[in-house]
Amino acid sequence: MAKSLGELASTLGCEIVGDPDASISAVATLALGQPGAISFFANQAYSEALRNTKASAVILAEENVSLSPTNAVISSNPYLAYARIAEILYPKDLFEGAIHSSASVAKSASVAQSAYVAAHAVIDEHCVIGEHVYIGPGVVVGPRCNIDAQSRLLANCTLVQDVSIGKRSTIHSGAVLGSDGFGNAMSDSGWVKVPQVGGLSIGDDVEIGCNSTIDRGAIGDTIVGNGVRLDNLIQIAHNVVIGEHTAMAGMTGIAGSTVIGKRCMFAGQTGSVGHITICDDVVIGAQSYVSKDIREPGIYVASFPAEKDKDWKRKVVRFRNLADLFRRVGKLEKGKQ
Amino acid sequence: MAKSLGELASTLGCEIVGDPDASISAVATLALGQPGAISFFANQAYSEALRNTKASAVILAEENVSLSPTNAVISSNPYLAYARIAEILYPKDLFEGAIHSSASVAKSASVAQSAYVAAHAVIDEHCVIGEHVYIGPGVVVGPRCNIDAQSRLLANCTLVQDVSIGKRSTIHSGAVLGSDGFGNAMSDSGWVKVPQVGGLSIGDDVEIGCNSTIDRGAIGDTIVGNGVRLDNLIQIAHNVVIGEHTAMAGMTGIAGSTVIGKRCMFAGQTGSVGHITICDDVVIGAQSYVSKDIREPGIYVASFPAEKDKDWKRKVVRFRNLADLFRRVGKLEKGKQ
Amino acid sequence: MAKSLGELASTLGCEIVGDPDASISAVATLALGQPGAISFFANQAYSEALRNTKASAVILAEENVSLSPTNAVISSNPYLAYARIAEILYPKDLFEGAIHSSASVAKSASVAQSAYVAAHAVIDEHCVIGEHVYIGPGVVVGPRCNIDAQSRLLANCTLVQDVSIGKRSTIHSGAVLGSDGFGNAMSDSGWVKVPQVGGLSIGDDVEIGCNSTIDRGAIGDTIVGNGVRLDNLIQIAHNVVIGEHTAMAGMTGIAGSTVIGKRCMFAGQTGSVGHITICDDVVIGAQSYVSKDIREPGIYVASFPAEKDKDWKRKVVRFRNLADLFRRVGKLEKGKQ
Fold this sequence. Notes:
The structure is a homotrimer.
Chain A: E1 3-4, H1 5-12, E2 15-17, E3 23-24, E4 26-27, E5 37-40, H2 47-52, E6 57-60, E7 71-74, H3 78-89, E8 98-99, E9 104-105, E10 110-111, E11 116-117, E12 122-123, E13 128-129, E14 134-135, E15 140-141, E16 146-147, E17 152-153, E18 158-159, E19 163-165, E20 170-171, E21 176-179, E22 184-187, E23 190-193, E24 200-202, E25 207-208, E26 213-215, E27 222-224, E28 229-230, E29 235-236, E30 241-242, E31 247-248, E32 253-254, E33 259-260, E34 265-266, E35 271-272, E36 277-278, E37 282-284, E38 289-290, E39 298-301, E40 307-308, H4 309-320, H5 322-336
Parallel strand pairs in A: 4-5, 5-6, 6-7, 8-11, 9-12, 10-13, 11-14, 12-15, 13-16, 14-17, 15-18, 16-19, 17-20, 18-21, 19-24, 20-25, 21-26, 24-27, 25-28, 26-29, 27-30, 28-31, 29-32, 30-33, 31-34, 32-35, 33-36, 34-37, 35-38, 37-39
Antiparallel strand pairs in A: 1-3, 2-7, 22-23
């Protein structure tokens, strides 16, 4: 979809420096930008790419306008402005309401006229599928699920049962929502499964990444707040509560009944033990895990970045010999007295 | 399903203190318990919730009976008793044997009359599906699989081939069992795949979590013992052997040919290298990994919990300067002589 | 499939010591080898198993021939020779081109006559499926995907859209390719999704493990080079580039826009931050993560193997008391002057 630069900028309420009639039909990186493309500059590391870009326009902050070799869109948050322009240039596929002839929809399920149910999808008993909802191919929606307007379940994801999803949320392919949590009681003859009888409630404007898993509550619901963003391969255990606009990068795992605040950010491969509370505005660094309540906003971390094998091994030897060093220092101190 | 408290208690062989005619129809947490609900008390942290509970009954140990503000069921293992009562109150969905018209069942497959095969499920050649087995929607059972009585394969899980599953086991949605292991030999022109020709054998009363993956053996079988419990997003490589009643929390990964004993417990995001042996009754702490044989039962760990960014960074600087500290102490010792 | 030992050896260009007419119909470990089986010896730890093997033949290096109690195939790379012999003994299932009656193929899609499309598979608009391609049951191939000759998409994997796959590659069950990357810009009212408009390009002779996820590019493509091997449950973020013949073990995660060289090896549960470059021939040790550019080939690591709880806790206490130790040593040094 081609738009004039002026039209794009005015939709966002941004000023432009340059030609408002420039035609924009694509987004591109600064390095790969070609005529017709718009790019953005938000990181000084890309200054040279900016200087050499062949894109027809660049979104950048006011103080950087002089660096632009081409038409400029001025924004205090160039990445956000880029996201909004990309949304206009690449509108979501439209679809008309329909149920594919190979889909299997239970009699007690209610599917809005404007919803689309793709090939080989299954909608089980007592489900309610709202207006303009998209159910992709191979998706299974188990009994008693409720999908509100404009949400999208992409190919081959699974809602096991008793899942409620708000408006405009997207569940990516392969995700599994509403499965039994990991509850086991030890008996004389081995583990006894603890029946999981709660549900899973997901808010509006949520994204759940591919092959992520979110269990239903053991008793009561697991809860994912409005605007939460989960990347791929994330595990959220039973009765976890995730506050609004919290974001988690790939492979994060949260154990049961932990309550996480709003606007938190978890880096990749992070984790948390169960039954703790993490307050609002907490950031967890890469490959770190949380072992107890966090009551103060801020950055929390505990991981070592990889270094040369030999260097690391030497450090580990010293770490192992710390007891000896403490002893030696104690002895020196005594000798002094 | 509603039962009298007396009936529930006598099924478990437990004494009650209070009204045996109290009607119980649901489980609840202490905090959310309402009339008609039964809860349990197994953790002193919830003493106040116990004192204030509105549940009609609470399961607890004899020494805590006096703390209960309501009818009490006495058990030396309240969580186990809770599991058994929940099982009675929330019986598994019953189903009648049937094959959904959209399922695809190979001619050479044998499906018991009492088994259920759901919409869009696929059963490949030479499979044997036992009595009262449940095959969920979208499940693919590849060639030569054998599913014994009362086991359940939930929606969209996949058995690639040559998988045998015992009685009463549950494979959760999205799990992939019996796939090729990761075997590659380097040649002059790149990796050559090592054909994987073994199978996968899963015992009775096993649970495999959502989106977990268990590879078939390279030569000979991968083996998961009776009563094993695996959480979501777990990876078990080719020719691993997992002993009976071992439990693993989410995101654990076990590399090839490792042999794990009975009743072990792995916390979340743990791992093990391949080709080692871990004895019975070993516990691995959160985010830790095992690098060599473990021959003695006990708890093993090596991870640091996250702390404030600044505090952690200071510790890392000291850790990096240990060489210098060792030198300085050596110098002091020399100076003393 | 049975072959004579002489025929197998000559196909590989290997010498044999012993009976060229020995009939070989299976592979086996040294320990479980029976008459008719061929095994290999590549690790001195298995010397005793070699001495006692009942296999009809063993592949080993010239210097170990005298250790063999049975017919020997001589190879300087016994594991590679084993892989090639196993390939001959266990040929891949052949199939004839066909589209299962329950598959759903879009009108604008092109499927080669020799390709097979299994039950309940879905091929969306504008896809091109090449010669002898295998599309397994429940697979979803979204719009505009291109699968080149002899590649195989196993049961229940998903190509979301705009994925191109080269020749002879295998995508294992449950993998999700070409999904939206994790791009979010913060606005006053919460996260705004950054439209992901790139594709995913996968080379020839690639394997992608079960339930792994590879996102399409945000702008421009995510790229997986020829001969790359990815194990199960791996996450590759948007715009990552993986060089030829790089291999990653299970649960590795690579963040966005990172560029990885050729022939690298990542152990299990490893990771990398985004926007960095890792050169050719780098090895990353178990559970380690890379935080900045690596410009020199070699082994990089930073993780502690699990040890007894008590021992580890003592080390952690000392680690936490390092500040004090540095102070004490400083004081001693001052006292000396």
